[in-house]
Amino acid sequence: LSAMEKKRLILLAAALASLFGVVISDEECTPATKCDQAACEALGPENCHCSGNETSIPIADRPMIVYLTFDDAFTAIAESQFYHGLFDGSYTNPNECSIRATHFVTQSYTDYSLVNRYWHLGHEMAAHSITHRNDVKYWENLSVDGWKDEMVGMRKMIGQFASIDPCQVTGSRAPFLQGGGDNMFQMLAENSFLYDCSWPTRAYGYIDAEMGLYPYTLDYSSVQDCPIKPCPECAYPGLWVQPMTDLEDEWIGSNPSCPTCGNLCSMLDGCVIMGDQTKEHVYDMLMKNFERVYSGDTDDFGDFQPSNRAPWGLYMHAAWFFGEQIWHYEGYKMFLDEITDKEKYPDVWIVPINAGL
Question: Nearest 5°: CA angle at 157, between 151 and 161?
């Protein structure tokens, strides 16, 4: 083929990919292969961890790591009404230090002076895109350069306007949890991101969350289910995935395959609470999910299955607390009152995702 014919074929392939919504990585990548355990261990646990493997810490000594994350703009009203009461030192970890969160920040309406203040308090600031466009197809089909504009661009804005070293912004979450497959992960790997936390799991969460999935690197292929396509198929050595363990909500009977169960939700504000709209109901839902990952649960055969203590999170938007939904916030605080009780739960640590990794 002549150079002109090759160019026409490339343009035709790109047009067809766009027409049918196919995501093609901008560059050739190395397909992920089955885990080579020996090779992974040789790199050290901070650099490589195979998908599906648990931690080497004995089960009796494992801490229960809990993440609290908040997506979108970091606003003054959210800080004054909600964040201040959560992170003013009232709730502490076993070492008596204040609990801390991860904030996945977008550009519009963010108060960067508060971003700076909370970062100095030990909270993590991570990238959630500049524009947060509402079209999920935009994120599904975004190119490597497009992802770079959104995520590296947001990192730079946090650095410039919040006076934080941009190199401290190492985490990402895709808007609407709509990852971009290999294009997104290629961008993260090329731009020194440490991890992504956009990938939900039902197979290792929901009513099976006692067998949760530990964070892993993409040196090798993932065993995680892919409820929101596309998911990466290539290898990205050293790049971590913190799985989002699906919760079980209070919409009992909504799942035909489990009439006694609630439905699944990846984000806390996506959980449906039917019946009494009270703080106690929120608390009960959160405790139901927490006890499953902290202690364990009974399986379909009536046998108790102990938890493997995989890190677990409550991922949400602060809007879930606003207005007439204040009972959400009150129930959330009741839950924190309970799990930070060091006599009952002496091994629960509420930390940012980068610290948990």
Answer: 160
